[in-house]
Specification:
globular, cell membrane, transmembrane helix, mainly alpha
Length: 634
C-alpha cells in the first residue's frame, strides 16, 4: 500500500514533466532555436522525441494491480527510450534504411506495436482494426487482381519503411500534429487560463441573452468560439456544456433539445474559420495552398451552418414559448467588452502573422500564445491575472492533451506508408471512381457514407487526416476542386459526432443533460441538417467556396441563405404561429428549389431558384392572410 501511494504521488509529477517536455520541444522547434545556434537537426528527430514522450504519457496511468502497473511502466519506458534513441540515431538509420539494419527492424516493430496499443487506449479499437486491415491487405494484396492489386512487399521491408521512412510514421500527419496543432493547443490553454473562456461566455451572454431563446443562442455563440480553438468536439461539449446545457434547461428548453443544441454548436466550432480546430492548417499543407485560401473557402459554408442553427433555436424558442434569460444574469455589454477587449490582441497577432507576414503556422500560433500570456499576466479578466502556476499548468496540459492526436497521427502515418509502398493508394482511388460509374452524385453519396462511418468517435484532426488520405483523392480524380473535395470529407467526417448509432458528441451532451441519447442524436441531426447538405452544394456550386465572379458568388450566397431559412422553418414548423403539414412541406420545397445546385447550367438553376422564391413569397402571403383572419375572428 505504501508503495502504491508513493507511485500515485510520482505519476502526476512524471506526467507533468513529460507534458512540459512536449510543449517545450514544440516551442524550441517553432522558434528555430537549433538553427539559430548553428545546429542542424532533422525534423524527424524532433518528431521522435514528441512521439516517445506521448507514448510514455499514454501508459503512465495508475493501475490497481501490481502486474498491470509494472507492465505499463515498462511499455512507457520502451516508448520514451525508443523515441529518444530514434532521435539520436535517426541520421544513421535513414541513411542505411534500405540495408535494413537489425536495430531499424527491431525499433520499427516496437513502435508499430506500442503505437497501436496506445491508439487503442486513447480512441478505442476501431482505428486499430483499420490499420491492421491495411497491413493485412498489404501482405496479401499482390495475390489479387483488378484495381486493388498491390505490389509485393516483404514484411521486414514494410515494417522498416513504416517506422523510419518520412512517408510513414514520421511523415506529414505526425509532423503537422507535432508542430502546428501543438502550437494552437498551447495558444488555447494560455487563452483559457488568462480568462478568455470567461470573456467569451460573458460576451455571448451580453449579445444574445435578451432575445427569445437567448440561452440557446448563448450556447451556440459560446460553443462556436471555444470549439474553434479546442479542436476536440467532446472536450468542447464537456467544457462548455456543463454551463450552457443547465442554462438552457432552466430557460425552458427540453433536456434532449438543450443537449442537441450544444452538440451541434460544438461540432460546428470545428468547421468555423479561422482556426477550424487546427484543420485549416492541415488542409493548407495537404493542398499546398495558402492558409488564407482555406479560410475564405470555408467561410460561407460555416455561416450557412450557424444561420440554420440560429434560425431553428429562435423558432423553437418561439414555438415552445421559452422565456428570455433573466435580466440580472446578463452582464452589461459595455462592461464585458471593457474588461475583455484585450483578448482580441492574441487573435489579431495570429491573423496578422499568417496573412500579412506569411509566417509559418506554428510560429504564428506561438506568437498568439505569447500574446495570450502577456494579456493574462498583465491584465487578465475582471482583475484575475495569470500566476506562474497557471503558466506551468498550461505548458504541462498542452503536452498531455495532445497525446490522442499524436497517436492518431502516427497511425495515419502507418496507413499513408502502406498506401504509398504498395501502390494501394492509387488503386483505392481508381476503385472508388469506378464504383461511382461516372455518376458524380453517386460517388459523393458513397464517399459521404464512408466518411461518416470512418469518422465515428475520433477527434477532429484524426477524422480529417484519415479521410484526406483515403477518400479525398478519388473525389479530386473525377474533377472536383481539391479544396471542395477536402472540405466535403471534413464536413462529412465531422457529422459522425451527431449521427447515430455512435454519435459520441450527442451521447456526451445527453449524459450532461440527463436526456435520452438517441433522441438527442436525432434532434442534433435535424438542427445540424445543413452539414449533410451543404457539402454537396459547394462541390456542385463552387461560388459557395468563393470560387467565381462576384455576381455568381452573391447569387449563390443569397439563394442559399433564403433556402436555409425556408427549410429550417419547415423543419421546426413555426413562423409567428404553428404551421400545418402542407405549409411546412411548401416551405421545405421552396427551400430545396432555392438551394438546388447548378447541375445542368444556369439555364436550369435560375428558373429553379426563381420558382423557389415565388413559392416562398406565396406561402408567406398565405401565412400573413391567415394571421389577419385569426385576429379579425378574435
Amino acid at each position: 500500500m505504501e508503495q502504491q501511494g508513493h507511485e500515485a504521488g510520482v505519476l502526476p509529477v512524471l506526467r507533468a514533466l513529460l507534458g512540459f517536455l512536449i510543449a517545450a520541444a514544440a516551442i524550441v522547434y517553432a522558434t528555430d532555436l537549433f538553427s539559430r545556434l548553428g545546429i542542424a537537426i532533422y525534423t524527424e528527430q524532433y518528431l521522435a522525441v514528441v512521439l516517445g514522450a506521448s507514448l510514455a504519457l499514454v501508459f503512465l496511468k495508475r493501475e490497481e494491480h501490481t502486474l498491470e502497473r509494472r507492465l505499463n511502466l515498462l511499455v512507457a519506458a520502451l516508448g520514451l527510450g525508443g523515441g529518444l534513441y530514434l532521435a539520436v540515431q535517426y541520421p544513421y538509420l535513414v541513411e542505411h534504411q534500405l540495408d535494413m539494419p537489425a536495430q531499424a527492424l527491431v525499433l520499427s516493430a516496437m513502435f508499430f506495436v506500442v503505437v497501436l496499443e496506445g491508439l487503442r487506449r486513447v480512441v478505442g479499437l476501431t482505428l486499430v482494426l483499420v490499420v491492421l486491415a491495411f497491413l493485412g491487405y498489404a501482405l496479401v494484396g499482390h495475390h489479387l487482381s483488378g484495381p486493388l492489386q498491390t505490389r509485393a512487399v516483404g514484411l521486414d521491408r514494410l515494417v522498416v519503411y513504416l517506422g523510419i521512412d518520412t512517408n510513414g510514421m514520421l511523415g506529414l500527419t505526425l509532423g503537422v500534429a507535432a508542430t502546428i496543432v501543438i502550437g494552437f493547443v498551447l495558444f488555447g490553454q494560455l487563452l483559457l487560463k488568462s480568462g478568455g473562456a470567461d470573456f467569451f461566455n460573458d460576451l455571448a451572454m451580453s449579445m444574445m441573452g435578451r432575445s427569445r431563446g437567448g440561452s440557446g443562442k448563448i450556447a451556440t455563440v459560446g460553443s462556436a468560439l471555444f470549439g474553434s480553438i479546442s479542436g476536440v468536439v467532446v472536450s468542447n461539449i464537456v467544457a462548455t456544456g456543463v454551463i450552457t446545457i443547465r442554462m438552457m434547461k432552466q430557460g425552458g428548453f427540453r433536456p434532449h433539445t438543450a443537449a442537441a443544441i450544444e452538440t451541434v454548436a460544438s461540432t460546428g466550432g470545428q468547421i468555423m474559420p479561422p482556426v477550424m480546430g487546427a484543420v485549416a492548417f492541415l488542409m493548407a499543407e495537404f493542398l499546398q495552398i495558402s492558409y488564407a485560401e482555406v479560410v475564405l473557402a470555408a467561410l460561407i459554408p460555416a455561416v450557412l451552418y450557424y444561420v440554420a442553427l440560429f434560425i431553428q433555436v429562435d423558432l423553437e424558442a418561439a414555438k415552445e414559448q421559452i422565456a428570455k434569460v433573466s435580466p440580472e444574469l446578463i452582464p452589461p455589454g459595455r462592461e464585458v467588452f471593457g474588461n475583455g477587449w484585450i483578448f482580441i490582441v492574441p487573435f489579431a497577432a495570429i491573423i496578422a502573422a499568417l496573412f500579412f507576414y506569411n509566417m509559418r503556422p506554428e510560429a504564428a500560433a506561438l506568437l498568439g500564445a505569447l500574446g495570450a500570456l502577456i494579456v493574462g499576466v498583465v491584465r487578465g479578466y475582471k482583475g484575475k491575472k495569470m500566476s506562474l502556476r497557471d503558466v506551468w499548468d498550461s505548458l504541462c496540459e498542452t503536452g498531455q492533451s495532445i497525446v490522442d492526436i499524436v497517436m492518431i497521427s502516427a497511425a495515419a502515418g502507418f496507413i499513408i506508408g502502406i498506401l504509398n509502398i504498395t501502390g494501394l493508394g492509387f488503386g483505392l482511388t481508381y476503385f472508388l471512381v469506378q464504383l461511382g460509374e461516372g455518376n458524380l452524385f453517386l460517388l459523393l453519396a458513397i464517399s459521404a457514407v464512408v466518411c461518416i462511418v470512418l469518422g465515428m468517435g475520433m477527434p477532429t484532426v484524426g477524422v480529417y487526416l484519415l479521410l484526406a488520405v483515403l477518400v479525398a483523392p478519388s473525389l479530386i480524380q473525377v474533377g472536383i476542386e481539391p479544396i471542395a473535395a477536402h472540405l466535403f470529407i471534413f464536413y462529412m467526417g465531422m457529422m459522425s459526432m451527431i449521427t447515430p448509432p455512435i454519435a459520441i458528441g450527442a451521447f456526451f451532451a445527453a449524459s450532461i443533460a440527463q436526456a435520452d441519447p438517441m433522441k438527442t442524436a436525432f434532434t442534433a441531426m435535424r438542427l445540424g441538417w445543413t452539414a449533410y447538405i451543404v457539402p454537396f452544394l459547394f462541390v456542385l456550386t463552387p461560388p459557395l467556396l468563393m470560387i467565381g465572379g462576384p455576381g455568381e458568388i452573391a447569387l449563390a450566397v443569397v439563394s442559399a441563405l433564403l433556402g436555409v431559412w425556408c427549410i429550417s422553418v419547415g423543419f421546426v414548423g413555426y413562423l409567428n404561429h404553428r404551421q400545418g403539414i402542407a405549409m411546412r412541406a411548401l416551405f421545405i420545397f421552396s427551400g430545396v428549389l432555392l438551394i438546388l445546385p447548378d447541375m445542368g447550367g444556369l439555364s436550369l438553376a435560375l428558373p429553379a431558384k426563381a420558382a423557389g422564391l415565388l413559392i416562398m413569397l406565396v406561402v408567406l402571403g398565405l401565412g400573413y392572410y391567415r394571421s389577419k383572419c385569426v385576429l379579425v375572428i378574435k
